[in-house]
Amino acid sequence: MNEKIEREMQILHADINEYGVDEKLAASDRLNAACGKHDLPQLVELIKSSKNDFWVRELLSQPICELGGTEYLVELFEALNMNSKEGHDNDIFCHHLIEVTCVDPIGCRIKLNELLASGLCG
User: Fold this and answer.
1) Cα gap 21→38, rounded to integer Å
2) What average pLDDT does range 10-33 have in this prediction?
3) Residues 83-86: contacts with CB within 8 Å, 24+ apart?
4) What span, in angstroms and rounded, lies between the C-alpha atoms of 56 and 105?
5) What is the pLDDT of residue 65?
6) What would the mean pLDDT of 69-93 be, rounded to a whole number?
7) Which of 11, 28, 70, 117 is least enclosed by beta carbons within 10 angstroms?
């Protein structure tokens, strides 16, 4: 388990009165800098956490999209759906997903077709 990620997540999960927006954004930047592909399982578990609000899920979408790409589309769509159900616009989250399609359009098409065929989305 990456302790740097854990430390930054404490800030992201903290009340906004304890850490302000700028401090949370800085924590997200440090988290992104500390992550590698080997941290993807931890990041995916974190994006599923009930401690998250919509913003934390949006912030976590960046390293998962950048490092995991199409491999984690199911988990990303689940988090995106949760944000939508809570009434949020997902602008940052959607931006990161669009980047995945730009970086790997063929892989994305293959993964989406697999998901449609499996009935997991659609």
Assistant:
1) 28
2) 95
3) 83/54, 83/57, 83/58, 86/54
4) 26
5) 97
6) 93
7) 117
What are the structural domain ranges in the chain? 3-118
Residue 50, SS3 per DSSP? coil
| Residue 1's pLDDT band (cuts 50, 70, 90) | confident
Q: Tokens standing for 21?
A: 């927006």
pTM of the model: 0.91
Query: pLDDT exceeding 70 applies to what percent of the chain?
Result: 98
**Pure H helices in 14-53:** 21-34, 40-47
- Residues recorded for the chain: 122
What was the pLDDT predicted at 79?
95
Q: Which residues of 85-122 are buried (b: 16+ CB within 10 A; e: fewer)?
A: eeebebebbeebbeebbeeeeeebeebbeeeeeeeeee
CA torsion 88→92→94→95, rounded to 10°? 160
